[in-house]
TrEMBL record:
Domain of life: Eukaryota
Originating gene: TOM1L2_1
Protein's UniProt name: TOM1-like protein 2
Residues covered by region (Disordered): 116-140
Organism the protein comes from: Xenotaenia resolanae
InterPro entries, per the entry: GAT_dom, GAT_sf
Lineage, broadest ranks: Eukaryota, Metazoa, Chordata, Craniata, Vertebrata
TM region(s), chain numbering: none
């Protein structure tokens, strides 16, 4: 499955290869369930360690498969709708929470501070400094 994911290009694969990849995904997921069950039954530390390594490898392959599927579905829908214009919208985007970011800047002054409980605010309803906030949370 890992080799197929390395060799195949999302959206450009042969239908039989894609069907095989889906079947391998189902089979590997069933195998992982059996591995997880075995981990609790095995008494040998060396075998348990090997099972944990295999489980980690399977989880990594599942992540790659999910990425492949997301890219494949995003790419095919973007190509069918706007000839690739939507490809930017289908990628995993992060929210910018830095200073001045629209996600952080609020048009209502002190809107967040007025809803904080008194134990988390300092004088005049302003948020406490991180050190003071931590000590007050520890006191709760």
């Amino acid at each position: 499955m890992s080799e197929m994911l390395t060799e195949m290009v999302p959206g450009q694969e042969d239908s039989s290869d894609y069907e095989l990849l889906q079947e391998l995904n189902r089979t590997c997921r069933a195998m992982q369930q059996r591995i997880v069950e075995l981990i609790s039954c095995v008494s040998s530390e060396a075998v348990t360690e090997e099972l944990l390594h295999v489980n980690d490898d399977l989880n990594n392959i599942f992540l790659r498969y999910e990425r492949y599927e997301r890219f494949r579905s995003g790419r095919s829908s973007a190509q069918s709708v706007n000839n690739g214009v939507l490809s930017e919208a289908t990628e995993d985007n992060l929210i910018d929470l830095g200073p001045g970011s629209p996600a952080v800047v609020s048009n209502i002054p002190n809107a967040a501070t007025t809803s904080l409980p008194p134990a988390l605010t300092g004088p005049a309803g302003r948020p406490s400094s991180p050190a003071t906030l931590a000590s007050r949370l520890a006191g709760l």
